[in-house]
Amino acid sequence: MAGKALKSKLRNKQLKPISAMRPATLNKLEKAVLLLFSNHDPSEVSMIQIANAANMSLKTLYNYFGDKQTIIYTILNRVLGRLAIRMIDHLQGIDSVKDRLRKTLWVFFDFIDKSPDAMMVLSTAVPVSRYREIAIYDNKELVDSYLQVLRDGQEQGILNDTVPLFTLFDVFIGFISRLGLMHIIRRNPAPLNDNFDELFIILWRAISKPEID
Q1: Same domain for 109 and 45?
Q2: Rounded-to-integer distance, Cα 146 and Cα 141, Å
Q3: Which of 1, 3, 11, 129 has its CA 20 to 30 A from that of 104?
């Protein structure tokens, strides 16, 4: 009851900017959110549980986030933001379309291998229709840098150009998402990148022109 009363009281209060939260506190919150939501049904995780796991007051959570979903979106944006920076950095200085796609896939798999909790939270705690609530999904620099790889591949006659550009994008992301999620669910102890070459061949054959080896 106390939690509901506090939520009602703070509902219409202007939220504090995340930038005002101490980095150490935000780090603790990130660990707590990823741990809780990757191991429990999201509907069963309460704001009080999050506050306790992060060693924060319930009032602080409401002051900064307002509700549970905003906490999830904020933390995922933080985690995926680090991935985006790494992705953009790794694409610099590579000319070959195939090599850029290889590097992109490797970075994604490495992220999944090292951050399985984040992958689980993204897959189970956020409805697909709400992905755009995570700010990084509208990161123009990231999206454009990746789409440019696919666009170059189509223009150079390397990738399938009989389908729209975003179809290739969806195939690529779908391949990573499904493979990564099931790898975690099956508790496969081997890193995804242990089979990188074999997996890349499957993806390459799916998006390249049939005559391209």
Answers
A1: no
A2: 9
A3: 129
Could you give phi then psi for residue 170, rounded to 5 degrees? Answer: -65, -40
The two three-digit tokens of residue 101, written as one number: 């796609």
Are 175 and 109 within one domain?
A: yes
Tell the residue number behind the tokens 């291998």, with chain if given: 113
Among 10-14, 36-40, 125-129, which stretch is predicted with the lowest mean pLDDT? 10-14
Contact present, 167 and 182 (Cβ < 8 Å): no
Residue range 49-73: mean pLDDT, rounded: 95
For tokens 């049939």, the residue is: 210
119 & 192 share domain: yes
Residues 102 and 193 grouped into a single domain: yes
Backbone angles phi, psi at 46, to 5 degrees: -100, 165
Q: Are residues 50 and 152 in the same domain?
A: no
**pTM assigned to the model:** 0.84
Q: What does the pLDDT look like over 131-146, one tens digit per residue? A: 777 777 777 777 888 8
Parent domain of 48: 2-66
